[in-house]
Amino acid sequence: MELLEWIIAHWVSLFEHGAIAAGLFFTGFTYYIDTKERRLNYHLRLTEQHHKILSDLITNPQTARIFDVKSSVATLTEQELHGVNFLLLHLQSSFRANKAGLYRLPEQLDSDVLEFLSMPIPKAAWSQLKPSYNKDFVRFVDHILAIDRKR
Question: What count of other Cβ atoms lies within 10 Å of the Cβ of residue 48?
Fold first, then answer.
């Protein structure tokens, strides 16, 4: 009986506290859903950009040599250097998004990076471009390359 009297006397306060709790719950839930959506959108944008960069490089006769494992680095052109730079900038964007929690790097990324940077032109371009990249990113790439040297 006392409980019922207390509820009747304090129903406004109980309602206010319940509304505040519900508001906090729905705010948290909305934030959670929004974060998932942002991660998915970022993943889709990265995939689209990756496809466009690769398509442009492969179909352009001035940059198609980048992916030739038998190409000579003695004749590294400005277009090839820029092409490799575009791919590395794209990788760096993925790396930064991963550090910010917006994107999860693919599990096979190490082998993809290693395969790409083992090709003559990307390898030579990485040596030239390396000083212009963020130190964390350079450590990340060099760590991948060092793992291969240990094998």
Answer: 10
Residue in this structure with the two tokens 């730079």, named with its chain if needed: 85
* CA 123 – CA 118 distance, rounded (Å): 6
Instruction: Give 75's Cβ-side CA count (13 Å radius).
Output: 6
pTM listed for this prediction: 0.76
Per-residue CA distances from 54 to 6, 82, 142 (Å): 70, 13, 22
As a whole number of Å, the CA-based R_g of the chain is 26
List Cβ neighbours of 93 (8 Å cut-off, separation of 6 or more).
46, 49
Cα–Cα distance, 94 to 90 (Å, whole number) = 6
What confidence tens digit (pLDDT) does each residue in 6-58 have? 777 777 888 888 889 888 988 988 988 888 888 888 888 888 998 999 999 99
Tokens encoding 120: 């003559």
How would residue 149 be classed by pLDDT, with cut points 50, 70 and 90? low
Beta-carbon contacts of 136 under 8 Å, excluding residues fewer than 6 positions away, are: 95, 99
